[in-house]
Amino acid sequence: MTDAAFDAVMSVNLLGTRRLIDAAVPTLLANGGYGRIVAIASAAGQLGLRHLAAYSAAKHAVVGLIRGVAMDLAETNVTANAVSPGSTRTAMLDASAVLYGLPSAESFGEQQPMGRLLEPSEQAAMIAWLCSPHSSAITGANLAVDGGMTVN
């Protein structure tokens, strides 16, 4: 992988996340210090995946960023958490299947402990919960919604 390609992966996944957080925090604090930040990491950031070293590194760094932001905002009632999806039915997963020479994205689901691909709605449900009042005591967490992919 070239430096330019590595930088592009980091820019989109890590720097983009930081820029969004930096843009949102002043508004969250101005609203009386109540708010929720939820970043999208990845099971790849916990595992490291073949041919995806830059992506794995970027998503691992997103978790570190969220933990630091959570500490910085802990006394403000603004929480910061990450969700780490596993193999979820998306166009990106279809592209990964091509990269790995698999017949389809369904092959990833067969490799997960739950034996299936996850649906985007399963990720969305966790994100919605993290944005709700029910999660007010959760900050700095990285919640795996990965079908058991990172159990071991």
Automatic annotation (TrEMBL):
Identify the CDD domains for this entry.
SDR_c
The answer on whether this UniProt entry bears the keyword tRNA processing reads no
Single annotated GO MF: oxidoreductase activity
Pfam families per record: adh_short_C2 (PF13561)
SUPFAM superfamilies xrefs: NAD(P)-binding Rossmann-fold domains (SSF51735)
The record's comment on protein family reads: Belongs to the short-chain dehydrogenases/reductases (SDR) family.
| Entry protein name | Unannotated protein
Q: Which organism is it from?
A: freshwater metagenome
